Amino acid sequence: MCTCDSKKDIYFPLPATVSKVEPMTKLETFFSCRLDSGEELGHMPGQFVEVSIPGIGEAPISVSSSPTRRGSFEMVIRKVGNVSKALHELVAGDKIFVRGPFGTSFPVDGAMKGKDVIFICGGIGLVPVRSAIQYVLDNRGDYGRVIILFGAKTPRDRLFVEELDKWRHDKNVTLLQTVDRRDESWYGAEGVITTLLPLVKIDKDNTVAIICGPPIMYKFVVVVLLEAGLNENQIYLSLERHMKCGVGKCGHCQISNIYVCQDGPVFKFSDITDIEEAL
Amino acid sequence: MTIKKLDKAALDKWISACIENQQVFGVQARDDRFVFAPLENAEDLRLDYDVTILPPKKYFLPPRETLLKFDRKEGFESIFDDKPFVLFGVHPYDMIAISQTDKLFSEDHHDTHYFERRQNATIVACDVQNASKDVFAGCMGTATVGDGFDILITKIESDYLVDIRTEKGQALAETIKDAEDADEMSVKLRKLVWADNTELLQKHKLHIRPDVLPRLLDRSMEHPVWEEKSQRCFSCGSCNLVCPTCYCFDVQDDVEWNLQKGRRYRAWDGCLLSEFAAVAGGHNFRRNRADRYRHRYYRKGKYVSEKIGEVACVGCGRCITACTAKIANPVEVYNKLVDEGK
After folding, report:
1. Disulfide: which of A272, B248, B281, B310 matches A80 by Cβ 3.0-4.6 Å?
2. Count of CB atoms within 10 A of residue B205's CB?
């Protein structure tokens, strides 16, 4: 039996203050926060935190900013459950509580280093991946080409519109966007995200792909990447489950023998190809 | 440490002394079944019980447990349960389940709420005297137990051997009066009890050794048994509820009438319940009954087993008894996989 006598409580959330709230779409709102202790969150791109509102509950939320941008951490929260609805009521100056960061991260300091990186994001899949994109752009010299493919349902559902524009104008970045359904404001591509892939040249031996989006997107994107000659170990993806406790106990995020909160949310594709229920 | 031999009168005297000195939970009869409950009189303790309705995990991972208190202005405060208590009459299979849960709650992230209770507990295990109708601990290697407990009681003819193993056990045994050290013959007879129990606690017989289960399951993902059995599953979670090795939980907040203060609690959850793997926004990663049904067997026989190095089913048979649809017999399922294996 474990005789560790530390009174440290893995369920104890730390106070943080919301410094900025900005609606992004009808459902998604941007939050910038700071730990009240003054310390950095200490996360890596792709990790998540458990965000609490006392009396409402706790929910896993991915961190959307890069640790290279110090002083605060950012999240984009979709209004879907009790906690996220309550978060949408908050204004700057309000308090939230956080535990974490938890989970694995995109290999920004590992497999991605020195390589071309292709980010493929669908909808709010851009939220966790933005952390890695910012990290790469802040250390631009450490990576090869940077390609970002982004797909949204409609032009109005696009997140980080200004930042997307900035990336579009960045000479060091290739950004391609598409929407499932065009409207009068949109002059860009229409169609699912896989239609963008043939438009970019992929150096198959020298590329790492990062994918995040709705469950259905993975199946199609992975097939196209493998056809383009990438290996299963050059593909990383972030999986969504309900990581209720964040510490590998509560069982909710389990897929076969892995706990998404600990073994993920970021997985190397070759590590989960044999795992039933993963994709 | 030492093994004492007590007659019934000395045993009752000792139990009475224990009750006087601290909180004791012990096995008692409720109609024709048994439960762990606060023990007030030594004569209420039924060491001859077959199986309890709920396993003793409820003392370490209560059905509903406050983790934190909060004040919406002040924030959170951790709540720990730090009262010492004695758990009297834990059967070997349940003891093994507790030791498994110890491992799971200590590794990676140490769960202080669980261990505060665990460290405050003195566990008096007892060898089984009467087999329950669905027990199969004999085939799981859990009919007897070698460690984890503080004291082990074994009935030998009309006497009781009290095997004191730890310092906590020693402290509890200090109030034992009128007892001698166990004689060699009684200790030998105890070995016979263990051998008998391994034979007797096999009301259902597994056709393979339990350590083969992970490999068996490796090739059984697509077996028709999951669909076949789960067609009758009510998704009620009774099998989860009564299982000594199920520990999944949900976390919720409860607010007081003033909307300022409240508690964050955790409560037992079950992977057979339809919403268990649902995420906000409506997607459910295990929407089909068969997927949830299969998940439970894989968790016991493979996922947790691979994590802790022992099969996470201890053969208590509670799920078999509790299942309304009569589909929860693990032995039946595993045997089907063996006999109809592809």
Report:
1. B281
2. 10
Here the tokens at position B331 are 């032995």
Closest by CA to A1, choosing from B95, B340, B320, is: B95
Q: For residue A209, what are its two tokens?
A: 């792909």
- Domain locations in chain B as residue ranges: 2-200, 210-339
Spatial separation of the C-alpha atoms in residues A266 and A63, rounded to whole Å = 13
Q: Which of B47, B238, B276 shows the shortest CA–CA distance to B159?
A: B47
Q: Are residues A202 and A176 in the same domain?
A: yes
Question: What is the CA A146 to chain-centroid distance, rounded?
Answer: 17
Query: Across the interface, which of B108, B249, B295 has its CB nearest the CB of A248?
Result: B108
Residue type, B41: N
Q: What is the largest CA-CA distance in chain A?
A: 65
Chain A 151-190, residues with CB within 8 Å of chain B CB atoms: none
Q: Considering the domain boundaries, does residue A252 fall inside one? A: no
Q: Output the six-digit token pair for B310.
A: 């022992």
pLDDT category, A4, cuts 50, 70, 90?
very low
Task: Note the pLDDT tens digit of each residue in A84-98.
Answer: 999 999 999 999 999
**Calpha distance A62→A98 (Å, rounded):** 12
Q: Domain range holding A144?
A: 116-238
The tokens for B26 are: 């012990």
Check whether residue A227 and residue A149 sit in a common domain.
Answer: yes
* A258 domain-assigned: no
Instruction: Please give the distance of CA B272 from its chain centroid, rounded to a whole number.
Output: 18
Residues of A with Cβ-Cβ distance to B99 under 8 angstroms: 1
pLDDT in tens, B24-67: 999 999 999 999 999 999 999 999 999 999 999 999 999 999 99
Is residue A47 a contact partner of residue A104, using CB atoms and an 8 Å limit?
yes
Query: What span, in angstroms and rounded, lies between the C-alpha atoms of B201 and B320?
Result: 14
> Which residue of chain B is at minimal alpha-carbon distance from A4?
B110
Q: Is residue A189 part of a domain?
A: yes
Rounded Cα gap, residues A46 and A103, in angstroms = 8
**Closest Cβ–Cβ partner in A9, A250, A255 for B112:** A9
Alpha-carbon distances, residue B8 vs A58, B42, B45, B104, B162 (angstroms): 52, 11, 12, 37, 12
Q: Pick from A3, A5, A251: which is nearest to B248 by CB?
A: A251
CATH, residue A202:
3.40.50.80
Partner-chain contact A257 B281, CB within 8 Å? no
Cα–Cα distances (Å) from A267 to A52, A260, B131, in that order, read 26, 9, 47
CB proximity A97 to B under 8 Å: yes
Q: How many residues does chain B have?
A: 342
Residue B283: list chain A partners with CB under 8 A. 215, 240
Q: Does A266 fall in a domain?
A: no
Helices and strands of chain A, counted as H and E runs: 6, 15
Burial class of residue B175, CB neighbours in 10 A (0-12, 13-18, 19+): middle
Number of structural domains found in chain A: 2
Q: Residue B135 half-sphere exposure, CB side, CA atoms within 13 Å? A: 28
Residues of A whose CB is below 8 A from B282:
80
In single-letter form, the type of residue at position A166 comes to K
Residues A61 and A38 in one domain: yes
pLDDT of residue B47: 97
Nearest-10 crossing angle of helices B289-298, B330-339: 90
